[in-house]
Amino acid sequence: MIEHRTMNIEHKTKNKILKNKFSILGFRVSVNLGFTLLELIVVIAIISILSTIGINSFTAAQRRSRDAKRMTDIREIQTALEQYYSICGYLYPTLIPGGFYNSINCPAPPISIMPMVPVDPKPPSMTPYYCQTTCDGSIYTVCAALEAGTSPTFCVSNQQ
Question: pTM, whole model, 2 decimals?
């Protein structure tokens, strides 16, 4: 019984030694089972650099997407204004410079061309697109401020 216990203790001791050290061509090599502080700091630094790059590219893609939406909205407003021109007696709706269209409706004949004009997609401002110059019955220039790209604004003018 005592012999069995001592063999069991010797077996556990050998297993403990084998877990931490092993031999290669007669050389005893230690095996560390954890990471050093330096290794952890390097991994954290790499992860933070990659996440920063990812966040920056994601926000740039959001800006480009909002700009594309703004350009599409401005072109839709241009189409609605041209429809207004052809339906409502060959005149455009009038606005003061810096003003904006809430809706585009023809008074005679009573037709709603664009019941709700789109607004800027960036929350929380939701600012409308504005008339840059005099938007009287004969001309208009509707603009939107862009976030990314080479030009700060995107404008469309009357086609007639």
Answer: 0.70
